[in-house]
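User: quick one - fold this with guanosine-5'-monophosphate bound?
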Amino acid sequence: MNLLKQAITEKGKVLSDEVLKVDAFLNHQLDPELMQQIGKEFADLYKDAGITKILTIESSGIAPAIMAGLELGVPVVFARKRKSLTLVDSLLTANIHSFTKNETNEISVSNDYLQENDTVLIIDDFLANGQAVRGLLNIVEKANATLAGVGIVIEKGFQAGGDLLREQGVRVESLAIIDSMSENKITFREEF
Ligand code: 5GP
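Assistant: Sure. Structure tokens for the protein plus guanosine-5'-monophosphate:
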């Protein structure tokens, strides 16, 4: 997706060989027009998949997910990372290890909003080692729902998550795949 690649190139900051900061449009300040285009792109990719629900994780997955939900006309559920006083009944939980924060969190989703008759599209901002997506897959499984696939805004193709998921037969659609990055240059995978 060219608009996204342009935003990454112009506004992204490579913090190390492995970490990209995109606070200017995705992780802190949000670019609504870009988010809308991202939503349209996901909706187009998954329009024939019978999606009934989008599942993401707070907080940075929410913006692209809500835009995709708007386009597909389906509700968006976000997994919570912190225990909530009101989220107490029929919880589906999974553990995920955060790549950027180096900590393990239990994520939870209420069974009320994810059920066995759902066909789910998982959306997240980044795909690195695949921990976050695996946690969400785990929750889809626990709900006995059907997984249609995964939509990722930025995949770091030099980390193992995307390849491992695809090898397992999971449909993974990433709008930009970074093959390598350094302070001066970000190289995208072409024509994937
Ligand atoms: P994974 O679970 O695939 O290893 O990592 C994905 C999660 O870690 C995403 O939800 C995202 O929040 C965070 N993440 C991983 N790599 C990066 C990165 O390079 N930049 C930013 N901003 N977040 C990342």
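One thing worth noting: The beta strands are 13-14, 20-21, 53-57, 76-79, 91-97, 104-110, 119-127, 146-156, 172-181, 186-188.
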